Amino acid sequence: MPPRKSSEKTVSKSNKKSNSKLFVLDTNVLLHDPTSLFRFEENDICLPMLVLEELDNKKKGMTEVARNARQASRFLDEIVSDAPHQIEAGIPLNPEAYKNCTGRLFLQTSFLKHDLPANLDLGKADNGILGVMIGLIKDQPKRPVILVSKDINMRIKARALGLEAQDYFNDKVLEDSDLLYTGVLQLPDDFWERHDKDMKSWQKDGFTFYQIQGPLCAAFFVNQFVYKENDTPFYAVVLEQNEQTALLRTLTDYTHTKHNIWGITARNREQNFVLNLLMDPEIDFVTLLGQAGTGKTLLTLAAGLMQVLETKLYSEIIITRVTVPVGEDIGFLPGTEEEKMTPWMGALEDNMDVLNKPEAEAGEWGKAATRDLIRSRVKVKSLNFMRGRTFLNKYLIIDEAQNLTPKQMKTLVTRAGPGTKVVCMGNIAQIDTPYLTEGSSGLTYVVDRFKGWEHGGHVTLMRGERSRLADHAGEVL
């Protein structure tokens, strides 16, 4: 097969570390995470000239991709400016923020002939990057050269040519979403027998407290819910914990009508745990996971209305969500910010209909007045205008949070000022954002990072309560 010319050659043979790998980064890795330049520890990375050109083409605009392209370019500018004479030998990557990064950055500096199948168009950027890999492998036959790309087809094409390729995993919190913290732990049948030594119990403010010690205490997290289902069911939350001891406190029973929240009672064990979190003024941050119909939005809104209109703990409810369409986009929408967000807030309207049930004798005027009162305390905001804001004494609900990146999630959660409670909810099995997976979603990220914090709590809702049709569809479809 005749050799074809490509616009690539990169690395000098000098100063190579025999035990390190050389990773060739695709453009989409930098667009997804600009800090990926510093995430390969002792290994070296190579950027073909085509990647730099694609970064340049993507830098215009106000989208997340454009921002990431500009940030990646800034990082590269800083790296190259520090050691412009070392481009051939590789520029050391040793930023202060990433102490584990001891590798080097190689940029393409000249051309190299290499063999590619005749049917691969060399004018296509992906094929040009694959050409870089072939040239590098010939130049350094004893060194592992690996392509890193978020593009599945790019990885398939590379493997078809006998090249090693892998996804970018560094942004993933977990490899398996089944390992994600659920916030709930079932106690073994012999729990009391193994933890009753020197146990102390007392009552205060209507709750029973248990100071226990035993082997299971080390496995607890603060604000984790524990339970036993037997002849005498036991439900509690972990208030304190260390290697040997733990402090448990019983819960308010929100399944009973006398403890109803805006007319809503918990229908199952996890919903009871959720309401205990949402109604606790000491909990500032709550994350809720669960499939459609588990009651995430209804419980969150009911608790919000109760604490805004009845107990006056918060001044108003603010709801926001990512506007990612499931099908084709319907184009620009007219009106104010709130009017533009209205089509995305169907879930809010549906739950408001359930919660807005005034007394029968109130009549149409009473119903309209109640609806207007509730509406005046519930504000719908767009994510686009969140940066720089500070919310004081607000009840902030972030819906469909599985579609947020970790960076977007940080932007939102850091908006919380004094007296504000933030509730993030979503279903990580329904991610609509490109390049986000269950392991790298911003929702997964905050669940993992906030577990065990004394002012944060999490519950994974397991059982659907919408209808028998919705439950069956969730199982069989």
Description:
Residues 1-17 have low confidence and may be disordered. This protein has helices at residues 27-32, 49-58, 64-82, 125-139, 152-160, 191-195, 269-278, 296-310, 337-341, 346-355, 363-376, 406-413, 442-450, 468-476; strands spanning 4-6, 22-25, 44-47, 91-92, 104-107, 112-114, 145-148, 164-166, 184-186, 200-204, 207-213, 225-228, 234-241, 245-250, 285-290, 316-321, 378-380, 394-399, 421-426, 456-461. It has 3 domains: 4-166, 5'-nuclease (Rossmann fold, 3-Layer(aba) Sandwich); 177-250, no CATH class; 267-476, Rossmann fold (3-Layer(aba) Sandwich). By secondary structure, it is an alpha/beta fold. Helix 2 packs across helix 3 (64-82) and helix 12 packs across helix 13. The chain is built from 14 helices and 20 strands. Helices cover 30% and strands 19% of the residues. It starts with a strand and ends with a helix. A hairpin with a 3-residue loop joins strand 13 and strand 14. The strands form 4 sheets. It has a 6-stranded mixed sheet. The protein has a 6-stranded mixed sheet with strand order 9-12-13-14-11-10, with no helix packed on it. It is globular and about 75 Å long.
Strands, helices and their partners?
Blueprint: E1 4-6, E2 22-25, H1 27-32, E3 44-47, H2 49-58, H3 64-82, E4 91-92, E5 104-107, E6 112-114, H4 125-139, E7 145-148, H5 152-160, E8 164-166, E9 184-186, H6 191-195, E10 200-204, E11 207-213, E12 225-228, E13 234-241, E14 245-250, H7 269-278, E15 285-290, H8 296-310, E16 316-321, H9 337-341, H10 346-355, H11 363-376, E17 378-380, E18 394-399, H12 406-413, E19 421-426, H13 442-450, E20 456-461, H14 468-476
Parallel strand pairs: 2-3, 2-7, 3-5, 7-8, 9-12, 15-19, 15-20, 16-17, 16-18, 18-19
Antiparallel strand pairs: 1-6, 4-5, 10-11, 11-14, 12-13, 13-14
